[in-house]
Amino acid sequence: MPDVDVAVIGAGAAGLSVAAISAGLGLKVALFERGTMGGDCLNTGCVPSKALLAAAHAAAEARRAHRFGIRLPAPEVDWAGVRAHVDGAIAAIAPNDSAERFGAMGVTVVRASARFAERDVIEAGGRRYHFRRAVVAAGSSAIIPPIPGLAEVPFLTNDSLFSLTERPGHLLILGGGPIGLEMAQAHARLGCRVTVVEAAAIAGRDDPECIPPLREALTAEGVVLREGSRVQAVEPDDEGVALLLDDGTRLTGTHLLLAVGRVPRLAGLDLAAAGIAFTPRGVTTDLALRSVSNRRVWAAGDIADPKGLGPRAFTHVCSQHAGIIARSMLFRLPARLSYDALPRVTYTDPGLAQIGPTEAELRAAGRKDLTILRWPLAENDRLVAEGRAEGLVKLVTDSKGRLLGVSLVGPGVGDMAGLFVLMIGQRLSGLAGSVLPYPTTQEAAKRAASEFYTPKLLSAPVKRLVGLLKYLP
């Protein structure tokens, strides 16, 4: 007889969600975690990065309070205090992800490395666990690029960045994606010199129309952006570390942060022993997140590579995966993963948000019946009142007004993204006719949606009709 009904490898966002649902339904669950409960999101990712961004935002607001007629002295950044805030945020959330809490749910938490021994057996902590079903949710780690000399210098990843005891003097960041840009702005606002080196353009996955306001904001805050630059080699320097670029430039800094992407944590799992198909992209699954080669096994979170879609390294995707697995694995119901309405946000200031595909991605997929709607946030009364009227709402619809994708740039656009998640695939008439509270930034969403109908409403036939209707009593 199996020892457990459900075995879960990895106590990050995906694994914890699956374990909680399974235990809540009365199944016998074993949860394996070799590191810290809560995984990357709690300990080295979402929580500490957003806590650091909050501290940086407070410093930035103090510096620009003069726009409201308020004069404040330049903020003094206490690095130890900033670290205490970050650590405090982690500590406040940690009990929700703790072994004690999951033990109280009835989950057997095994604090050891886990590996597959057979198609239905996991070995961990000197024991063998036979399972009916297993979920691989081991997560991902930062890519360490094969740059000559990198092994000879100290460098940071998200695993080590938030444990720095001293503020970096000059932080060099390799990679201009979400992590690199968020940490660039945070450290610049907290008094560090920052240089970002990006081989292509910053925020390369986002809509190009939305990038200029962010680029201008980062530059204005002192972040040096080296776009279109490749690092040829890395070497030690008296200052700390030096990057040798392809144009012959030699950049020196005190610290180097690698932020060039994520790679699934496959090493040590011995997936082959269980006949689990995988590639460097992760565990190969169908759209129900079930292994294509071992039908006892599912995968969730950063390590899952659903057929044709590829991995998505977002905490909210982990929650989405848990729901798919609950439907497929626990209830044996049809389930099909879709990223059509998937949101992603870069929490800079101004922020970037993308819901569903970009215009370029839709055109590359062969869509020709596209209508593009834009509404500038300079027209939003709430942001005008706050002195932050900058940014853009861009909607991509089909010819019938069904929303396909949304691109946003501006203050707090992450909070607007949820509204559009609900609208993907729907006609814009519902949003255009909705009553939203005034004044809020979400009004910009309604104004953008209304742009689809305004030309029709003000067309010559409609004007003639109104002209005739005016004679009716």
Structure description:
- With 473 residues, the protein is an alpha/beta fold.
- The protein has three domains: 4-37 and 98-142 and 263-330, FAD/NAD(P)-binding domain (3-Layer(bba) Sandwich), CATH 3.50.50.60; 150-260, FAD/NAD(P)-binding domain (3-Layer(bba) Sandwich); 343-457, FAD/NAD-linked reductase, C-terminal dimerisation domain (Enolase-like, domain 1).
- It contains 16 helices and 24 strands.
- It has helices at residues 13-24, 39-43, 46-63, 79-93, 99-104, 158-161, 178-189, 211-220, 315-330, 359-364, 381-385, 413-421, 429-432, 443-450, 454-457, 460-469, and strands at 4-9, 29-32, 108-110, 114-118, 121-124, 127-136, 140-142, 170-174, 193-198, 224-227, 231-236, 241-245, 250-253, 255-258, 262-264, 278-279, 282-285, 297-299, 304-306, 343-346, 351-355, 371-376, 392-397, 403-410.
- Strands 1, 2, 3, 4, 5, 6 and 18 form a seven-stranded mixed beta sheet that branches. Strands 20-21-24-23-22 form a five-stranded antiparallel beta sheet, with helices on both faces. A four-stranded parallel beta sheet has the order 10-9-8-14, with helices on one face.
- A hairpin with a 2-residue loop joins strand 4 and strand 5 (121-124).
- Helix 1 runs parallel beside helix 9 (315-330), helix 3 (46-63) packs across helix 4 and helix 3 (46-63) crosses helix 7.
